[in-house]
Amino acid sequence: MTEHNLLIFLFQVLVLLVLARGAGELLRRLGQAPIVGEILVGVLLGPTLLGRAFPELHAALFPPDAVQRSMLDVVSWFGVLFLLLETGLHVDVSAAWRARGPALRIGIIGVLVPLAVGSGLSFLLPDSVLADPDRRIIFALFLGTTMAISAMVIIARVLHDLDLVKSDLGLVTLCGYAVNDILAWIVFSLVLAVATSAALNLGAIAFLLVFTFAFTAFALTLGLRLVDSAVARIGTRMSENPGAVLTFVCCLGLACGALTQAVGLTALFGFFLAGIMAGEARHLTERTREIIGQMVHSIFVPLYFAGLALHLDFIANFNIGLVVFVTVVSIAAKFGGAWLGALGRDISAQDRISIGIAFTPSGVTGIVVAGVALEYQIITTPVFVAIVCSAIVSALLVAPWLSWSIRRGERVDLARLLAQNGILPALRARDRFTAIRELCLVASPATRLAPDDINEAVDEREQLMGTGIGRGVAVPHARIEALRRPVVAFGRSAQGLDWDAPDGEPVRFVFLVLTPARQEGLQVQILQAIARTMSGEGSRDLGAAGDAAALRKHLSQLLKR
String of b and e for 196-218 (b: at least 16 CB within 10 Å)? Predict the structure, then answer.
């Protein structure tokens, strides 16, 4: 490496980071996934556009030099590795286990169906699109895997933007994603190990299978407790140095990645499991999670996705038939798999459609898998371009499609749902579960159910996943079989309650939402309406309203807007 190589590298990173971050932020403000803008920057600066229009400028900015290219590739690899670490932080294994009935069904069937359909239909593709026709089975498994993996990063953002994260629909979706991600990455790691080994006998395959499941089982059980204990100890002994926990999490990712790479699996799988173990640590602060997320998505991810498209000619390798095949099969198979997994009395017909839609995006993870497959020459460039196009289409489609699915039900009048004596202007509670009990007591007459029965249902749901939505608001809720009509109660806390809200702020306004179990989609609409109402300027006056009558009047006016 020369001084000139370093100069070019620094200029490359500067240009890519500025443009990719700018394009990603623009797409985010338009309500779309930033990954689309980041990839488009790579297309713009690569041989697709800049190389065609200004070949001399393209050659000067991105010279075809092995050393120069490897410098950018190293940064890109760090980007994807830490992206998998950060993705693992969002996989809530505890919540998935507590909601294991629907979550396991949706997660497992949601992987197996698109894997089987995608792999099976891949045998219909001509030999001309394969890197090696003699390895069609490996190619089919890889293409099926890219179609089976859904994008948790994208759907988490969509659920947040639609105010669905804390709903039962959001809970089941994210828990199903947790199972989906773990199973899909196990499949991917095993297929990659088989595909990249020159001579892999049955004994070696058996070893990889045993190691994969044993290491995963360790990470999801004893590993969770060990990492939680280590994070607590580091946080206590080095409280004056908050960066120590961040260093530990990064080192955990490096250690797990090195281990899985050493035994023949991909390092990506090790980083992913490390993220899960760190994410489950109760003593890992939201601040540390936020720092890791900002570091990954502000620097590494834009460079990785812009760099992916930087050296590919998307026009020369664009095959419309292949793009349509991968897009249609991927979206349809993932939708069908999640919909089949959601079958059962515990999920309504309307929610089954919404869950199916929520699992359609491939996005970040699908492109990562395809990028690794391209690097190992398991797929061809036209197939990679088709997978990227499919990921972009599914990422752009999921938000409006899911929003349409939610809006299909009747519009609710929240003001009419407020219980007659269900307004508490001064909650006496000092914790969230006591506050829930207070609200259950005043909501009970409107429901004609025993307060203890209501309280038990709401507590059970709250323990699965907290219902603090931020901005000082919490929406504890439950679907109750014996309930005849929806009921809403409201309480205000002067001192604020710790509700483990995503923004860390204490909760002052608590809405208790009770809905009949069989009224499809009603809970989601009520929660969305509350979230929209409390995000407006008028909600600030709730703190100043006096007695219960004044509070009811002001609240009713807000809810009717």
Answer: eeeeeeeeeeeebeebbeebbee
